[in-house]
Amino acid sequence: MEQKKIDRINELSRLARERELTDAELRERSSLRAEYIRDFRQATINVLENTYLEIPGKTQIELRRIA
Length: 67
Prior knowledge:
Helix content: over 70%
Radius of gyration: 19 Å
Shape: rod-shaped
Number of strands: 2
Structural class: mainly alpha
Number of helices: 3
Distance between the termini: 27 Å
Strand order of the largest sheet: 1-2
Largest sheet: 2 strands, antiparallel
């Protein structure tokens, strides 16, 4: 996710603490949060798919095979 969008999420969160957000702001915040979570999950999956467990005396095992 672009830093600009993360900054906007933070700005909307700060505004929500100061006042009630408008309907448009609530929709924007919800959309940005959903995008952030989707990107975070995909990044986590990518890391796990490229992570291996090495057991002494055996070959490497991909973590995705364990789960």
